[in-house]
Amino acid sequence: MKSVTIGKNQAGQRLDKFLHKYLPLAGDGFLHKMLRKKNITLNGKKAEGKEILALNDEVCIFFSDETFAKFAGTSAVGSGTKHDASGTSKASASALPMKAYERLSGITILYEDEDCLILNKPSGLLTQKAVPEDVSLNEWLIGYLLSQRQISEEELRSFRPSVCNRLDRNTSGIVLCGKSLAGLQYLSRCVRERSVGKFYRAICAGAMLEAGTVQGYLVKDTVRNLVTVSSTPPAAPENEKASLIHTAYSPLAVTDDYTLLEVELITGKSHQIRAHLASMGHPLIGDYKYGSESVNRTLKKHFNLEHHLLHACRVTFPEAASGPGMLLSGRAIYAPCPDIFQRLEEALFPSM
Questions:
Q1: DSSP-derived 3-state class of residue 41
Q2: Is 16 in a helix, a strand, or coil?
Q3: Mean pLDDT over residues 335-350, rounded?
Q4: CA-CA distance, 251 to 242, in Å (whole number)?
Q5: Cα separation of 89 and 13, whole Å?
Q6: How confident is the prediction for the chain on average, in pLDDT?
Q7: Is the CA virtual torsion 272, 274, 276, 279 positive or negative?
Q8: CA 342 to chain centre
Q9: How confident is the model at residue 312 (pLDDT cuts 50, 70, 90)?
Q10: 120 with 141: CB under 8 angstroms?
């Protein structure tokens, strides 16, 4: 028998959802059969699976060690053991996150409370893994929380802290992270509902003299990891895959050749800022996917610039009277630009 005491990162979800995380190799039919036969109970009573778990609820699983290990995907552990939410071995649960925490550098913490963590990601680092062998900011986040004993080995089976917004590998700046289930739900909702303001610094080619907002239609080619943007809806069948995008921009400094911009990402789609500016004839400098070959060649020669200059510099949060967003209510969080961005600003806009 395994007895699981529900903690804050498991509370608030349905019992059947929790069981799917705790026993990831068990199917719906099997779990509901075990509930009907009282091989899985909630607080000592028969349960249906739709019950909402509360803090300190007790879920008991009356399986043999071999059956438990089969559906949990772990080695068998001794019977009669009390777990608070898991049973994963130390190596499987924490090896990759701790490796990421020890190996990755240049990540700074901009803000932290009990539920939320806001990081400044350096250019060149993935926000989340693209393939299983990748090491990303998401693994660093879990490794950091493990190292600070803010999450236990046991909790990682049924809840994993996560980043809530993505940046391209070579885009630097602010990444929102949920440390707790409540924080993850709050930040994900803010991103989904666009109630959090997302602002970027960018250097683009050409002179952009006036602020403005633009809309367009974005279509992603997943095979080439490339997007195209048009001002009018594309023809069928591409129109079914098109997303309406909305970008606002404001010039901060302008020369004949370059513009320093603040960009507000009103919608949030892959490569949106890069492709939208390029479609307007003002691609980001250093952008080898959507940019100007001649501009990029010049800047690489003089400044060794090998990637696009785009930095998520500021986020603003909505008012919140209670809950996990209360400490962030109405606040703005800023991320300083990386050194190469600052050097290019000084060189290309000497009168600033």
A1: strand
A2: helix
A3: 95
A4: 28
A5: 24
A6: 91
A7: negative
A8: 26
A9: very high
A10: no
* Max Cα–Cα distance, the chain, nearest Å: 76
Question: What token pair was written down for 301?
Answer: 């020669």
pLDDT category of residue 75 using cuts at 50, 70 and 90: low
User: Is residue 83 within 8 Å of residue 154, measured between CB atoms?
Assistant: yes
Q: Is 73 left (phi over 0), alpha (psi -120 to 50) or beta?
A: left
* 18-23 own/partner pairs: CB under 8 Å, 24+ apart: 18/53, 18/59, 18/158, 19/49, 19/59, 21/157, 21/158, 21/159, 22/59, 22/72, 22/85, 22/86, 22/157, 22/158, 23/61, 23/68, 23/71, 23/72
pTM: 0.84
Signed CA dihedral, 77, 79, 81, 86: sign only? positive
Contacts of 337 (CB under 8 A, 6+ apart): 172, 201, 311, 313, 345
Nearest-angstrom CA–CA distance, 78 and 99:
29
- Span 135-151, average pLDDT: 95
